[in-house]
Amino acid sequence: MTGLIRVLIVDDSAVVRQVLSARLRENPGIDVAGAVADPIFAMDHMNKSWPDVVVLDLEMPRMDGLTFLRKIMEVRPTPVVICSTLTQRGAEKSVEALAAGAVAVIEKPQSGLKKFMETDSGDIVAAVRAAAAAGRRPRRTTPIATAAPARPAVVASPRPKPMVNLVAIGTSTGGTQALEVVLTALQPGVPGVVVVQHMPEKFTAAFAARLDTMCRVHVKEARDGDQVVPGQVLVAPGGKHLEVQRMDTRYRVRVFDGQPVNRHRPSVDVLFRSVAKVAGPDALGVIMTGMGDDGARGLLEMHKAGAYTVAQDEATCVVHGMPREAVALGAVDREAPLSSIAEVIHHHG
């Protein structure tokens, strides 16, 4: 996209509005078009001038953020970044918001301006840029009150592939919705699946729990030592790396601390590289929607080790960055639309 990224901040805390505005305004490509206290004020602002990205609190007076998010998505789908507290309630509401169409979640600043600016502020800038990379929608003049038509489904035909016993999936921006599409389509006998989704600490447990209620496979946040078994999906905990280890003829996961890789913890590259090392042609690698290049080099290692590798196609990605980088490296055997990825996995397993 070209030009400034116009951001509207909606948060009932004056301090948070000040902190986020100050951090975003120091970036030349970002313009804070407004910072308002609640969705009612935001509606007035947006009906006059629609932003490119909305940074949205969830707990606010007069109207909660989740209700407002759904109104935005009904009228004019717009990239929304959720600014949430790291609490159980905050995590659950944030997962609901992601399912409703939010692009990303960041931790709400809990400290003073100085500390946030020095140590904690990188995620907000990255999240806004990632959200903006999803692309601007055409402008419309209709006030917030009407509904827009649903997006059309994408249809694809799969092709059979060799058998595998392990599926590794990596994704980032837009990945929560993409994973919901893929995992809810999986049958109970599918090979064991391990997932890295870029998400803050404490949010992945709520995310996995929600998916578990929707899927025919069992979905859980991974714990150190968990075995990779058919019909189960292990999601890397936020704030921890996850790698796969071999134990005789089976696989288990190692969950551990470590420095961020490609700015992320968990990192898709950490997962994919471990799978390349211990599973080789016994594995299938899938890289899906996300900004940046985390996972591209790891997928190349899987490809070189004999694994079959798949990238989500550009047309169905929220942000095509990660899959594009993997394709550019020659790491991908097949590009597939989101709607066919579950079928590809079943044809391998």
From TrEMBL:
UniProt main location, coarse: cytoplasm
A Pfam family that the UniProt record links to this protein = CheB_methylest
According to the entry, every stretch annotated as the Response regulatory domain falls at 6-123
Modification after translation, per record: Phosphorylated by CheA. Phosphorylation of the N-terminal regulatory domain activates the methylesterase activity.
Which Gene Ontology BP terms does the record give? chemotaxis
Top-rank taxon of the source lineage equals Bacteria
Catalytic EC class: hydrolase
**Cross-referenced CDD domains, in alphabetical order?**
CheB_Rec, REC_CheB-like
Catalytic activity, as annotated: [protein]-L-glutamate 5-O-methyl ester + H2O = L-glutamyl-[protein] + methanol + H(+); L-glutaminyl-[protein] + H2O = L-glutamyl-[protein] + NH4(+)
Asked if Cytoplasm is a keyword of the record, the answer is yes
> What NCBIfam families does its record include?
PRK00742.1, PRK12555.1
Share the domain note from the entry.
Contains a C-terminal catalytic domain, and an N-terminal region which modulates catalytic activity.
Of which family is this protein a member?
Belongs to the CheB family.
The protein's name: Protein-glutamate methylesterase/protein-glutamine glutaminase
Q: Which organism is it from?
A: Actinoplanes cyaneus
The organism's taxonomic lineage, starting at the top: Bacteria, Bacillati, Actinomycetota, Actinomycetes, Micromonosporales
- The gene for this chain is cheB1
